[in-house]
Specification:
191 residues, alpha/beta, 5-stranded parallel beta sheet, 3-stranded antiparallel beta sheet, 7 helices
Length: 191
């Protein structure tokens, strides 16, 4: 059963979803983390898919660290941050990836991507040939969403690969419906 919605999306029923999932092949899956409990809700879904497709799993953290800090005192000038500033963050991501019970028995790589926006994650996806990005929805709404934005929404708009947004990690990962986005023909993968 196929239902068309407004715009370029298709809601796919159970039988078609099974056929589509079986036809898809994901060899490299990335799941994002900001170290919050909300972001960890995506881990079981990413692990389940990595097992299903025998995929390599990447746990990715976006480190929004500027290359320099400008001092309020002109005589001090800019302070350039040392390259090793991210070592603690890299260790934290590696520890998270190795201690997460959902990832047991999987090939998991941890990665810190340095950048100011989702564009850095998109570059990582292209460079590592990631075939699926899994992100958790933090569930922000109203003023909080207006001020903080939605990382999941930015991922949908920017990622050059399919994006799975996980709203609730409770129970097992057993999708009933899958929302597929079809990019218009003739546009590049970031379009």
């Amino acid at each position: 059963r196929l239902r068309r919605g407004a715009g370029p999306e298709k809601l796919v029923g159970k039988a078609a979803a099974r056929a589509n999932l079986n036809a898809m092949s994901y060899s490299r899956i990335a799941v994002t983390t900001d170290f919050s409990e909300e972001s960890r809700r995506a881990f079981p879904a990413a692990a389940s898919l990595a097992r299903k497709f025998a995929a390599e799993l990447h746990v990715v953290h976006l480190a929004q660290v500027p290359p320099a800090i400008i001092s309020p005192w002109p005589e001090v000038g800019p302070y350039f941050l040392p390259e090793d500033i991210l070592e603690d963050v890299e260790k934290k991501v590696a520890d998270l990836a190795s201690s997460e019970t959902a990832f047991a028995g999987l090939t998991v790589r941890s990665r810190v991507v340095r950048g100011e926006s989702m564009d850095a994650i998109a570059d990582f996806i292209r460079g590592e040939k990631i075939s699926l990005l899994v992100v958790a929805s933090h569930g922000f709404s109203g003023v909080k969403r207006l001020l903080l934005g939605s990382f999941a929404e930015k991922a949908l708009r920017t990622a050059p690969c399919p994006v799975l947004i996980v709203r609730d990690g409770g129970g097992g990962f057993a999708p009933r419906r899958i929302l597929l986005h079809e990019r218009p023909r003739g546009r590049d993968e970031t379009g």
